[in-house]
Amino acid sequence: MDIKLIAIDIDGTLLNEKNQLAPATIEAITEARQRGIKVALCTGRPITGVKPYLNKLGIDGNDEYAITYNGALVETVDGKVLSKETVKYDDFLEIEMMSREMGVHFQIETVDSITTTDRDISPFSVEESHLVSMPIKYRTPGEITRDVNIYKLMYVDYPDKITKAKGNLPRSIYERMSVVQSSPVFLEFMNSNSSKGNALKALSEQLGLKPDNVMAIGDQGNDLSMIKFAGLGVSMGNGIEEIKKNAQFVTKPNSEDGVAYAINKYVNQ
Questions:
Q1: What is the pLDDT at residue 79?
Q2: Could you tell me how many helices (H) and strands (E) the chain has, helices first?
Q3: 59, 73, 167, 223: least CB-packed within 10 angstroms?
Q4: Under a CB-based contact definition with an 8 Å cutoff, are residues 106 and 94 in contact?
Q5: Mean local confidence (pLDDT), 82-98
Q6: What is the pLDDT of residues 14-34, one digit of tens each?
Q7: Which residue, among 236, 233, 232, 227, has the nearest Cα to 260 in the 3D structure?
Q8: In the predicted model, what is the mean pLDDT of residues 34-48?
Q9: 88 falls in which pLDDT band (50, 70, 90)?
Q10: pTM, full prediction
Q11: CA trace torsion 46, 49, 54, 56 (10° rounding)
């Protein structure tokens, strides 16, 4: 295959089971880039949570790219925005109200912070704040006004609560918004145009590439759209079954350097 762009999810994919970037993965990505292949990290994280890995991989400049907030934002790694999709204010109001009815913690993510509407902040929100190097703050729903650019809404809670909430969402939400489960404790809501697949398609077109020139590697539900878009969709061995079913190849798990294995198999030959 004539792969010219590799899109890689971060959590559960690029990073191993210890949340670390393994030497084998760095080596494989570095070799691919030396062959002239673009590597774009494609994640639900904001850019602050991506920068440390871009730095370790030596990816920098105005001709390198990152897809963040699950596709709501496509930007160069030095900060130039190529495309963005924000959440409608009325959707924020409805999803926040339903979180109270369902008894799940709720937060929003903007370009510079995580904001929770629960004074009793979820430990998962605190953990994510540390993980992506974003400050976390509490605001009442009334303090979040129409002029706030929201990239995604999130239900953040224990897996059983997230599963129940997901099952109780009205069909109209799925019809009106992009809804993905990025981990057992995160259910995310975005503009209907926001997805990793749509963002990867836009980036590919920007680079003059076709799907057959794209390899995408992921493990969770928020990776499904890019796995389907790419000419070569790769599921991690630790990926959920839906990803494995839709991928052309299932690589080793992240605990066994699955990203490096896939890149060496299809690119570094």
A1: 85
A2: 10, 14
A3: 167
A4: no
A5: 95
A6: 999 999 999 999 999 999 999
A7: 236
A8: 95
A9: very high
A10: 0.90
A11: 180
Cα separation, 254 vs 256, whole angstroms: 5
CB 68 within 8 A of CB 134: no
Contact 183, 220 (CB under 8 A): yes
To the nearest whole percent, how much of the chain has pLDDT over 70?
100
Strand 214-218 to 105-109 pairing: unpaired
Q: For residues 257 and 62, what is the distance between their CA atoms, to the nearest angstrom? A: 29
Gap between the Cα atoms of 45 and 129, Å rounded = 10
9 in active site: yes
* Backbone phi and psi for residue 41, each to the nearest 5 degrees, phi listed first: -80, 135
Q: In the predicted model, what is the mean pLDDT of the chain?
A: 95
Instruction: Please say whether the beta carbons of 16 and 239 come within 8 A.
Output: no
| Structure token pair of residue 218 | 């992921």
- Choosing from 9, 91, 157, 219, which is the catalytic residue? 9
List the 249-250 sheet strands across, edge first.
81-84, 73-76, 65-68, 38-42, 5-8, 214-218, 232-235, 249-250
Rounded-to-integer distance, Cα 130 and Cα 51, Å: 14
- Residue 10 is predicted with a pLDDT of 97
